[in-house]
Write a structure and sequence with these properties.
single chain; Rossmann fold; 15 helices; 13% strand; globular; binds pyridoxal-5'-phosphate
Amino acid sequence: MNLCPDDQRPLAMELDIPALKAAYPRNEWYERERRDMWKFTSLLGLDINDAEDARHLVSLGEGATPLRNYPEHPQAKLLELDLYFKDEGRAEPGYGANPTQSFKDRGMAMAVSMARRHGLTKLVVPTQGNAGDSLAEYALAAGIEAAIIMPGDTPMPILGRVAALARQHESIILETCEGTIREAGDIMRSKYLPAGYFNVATFQEPGWRIEGKKTLGLEIAEPRSGDTWQLPDVIVYPTGGGTGILGMWKAFAELEALELIGSQRPRIVSVQSEGTAPIVRAFENGDDDTAAATAGHTLATGLNVPGGVGHAKVLQILRESRGHALTVSERAMEEELARCWKQTGWWISPEGAATLAALAPLAEIGFLRGGERVVVVNTGSFEKYLPSLRHLL
Ligand SMILES: Cc1ncc(COP(=O)(O)O)c(C=O)c1O
């Protein structure tokens, strides 16, 4: 199935935690040295310790990305923050690497593996770009057909890569649309779903992409040394549909059920662009869900998501965690990107730059406190946006 037939909300995979505890009393499910997201083996909905599951696994080295300390950042210096940068973009020796240079690979590795496990042969995704790039890569590796629908103004490194794959392989279809992921969704519903494609759009598949994104939260919490799992005080996340937030939240709930962490949670912050900010508007208005917004223009195309079935849950998590939601300007994003490049040489995406740009306003309103441990998530790579960003280098 896709959405829950009762309330038309996203589904999630429920794990049998007591059974997991009994099977692995010393948390043997955790393979610390493994260099991909499958290091969490049986704590994932597709269990590589299960022979039948393992047979359907499609892995291209995704996850196990670096969590880098960033003490040079001006806000880290000013507030003496213990600032970390979770880098989902560029490959680095000694770590895993997302094959299409964005965190979407975590969700798609899981979704395509689960699709294979369930005998599906045709998948479709409407996308702002990165999820489509990722689906094309995994579907090819899995021998599954995929139709990818994205806005025609998607940055060329992303659009061009999928176009090249579609040209080389009959099993990959690329279709472009005017507008955003919303209009791409309309094409999916009118053309591909009636033709028998299974919908793996954000939250529309039964919890698989959340399950993959969960590994981001598990990695943020995993022991750096010794055996202690720990959470930061704050996580700043660039939010479109919100899969990453739901995934991390699920990770923390399961770690608590396993008694590896307590009930305390990081304060979760959603960052959106000024152009398209349905979550920020709803958060500010005290609403339970977002209202359909008109999409604007932003360099951070991954954030140009005017609405989503998961937004109600995102808002719930922001409030439960005593978090926040805010917009950042295009200019602030550009400045952070340029600064980060000059200071560190990291190859960050505009979405990642948005999280760094959020630190100063968060400090200004007193949300961040001196000495706190803060993780910002860089969800993609500069390289995928190069034509529109190269002037910043
Ligand atoms: C680079 C990047 N960052 C962030 C997002 C937003 O992701 P989520 O759906 O988890 O909010 C996207 C979505 O397309 C993206 O491509």
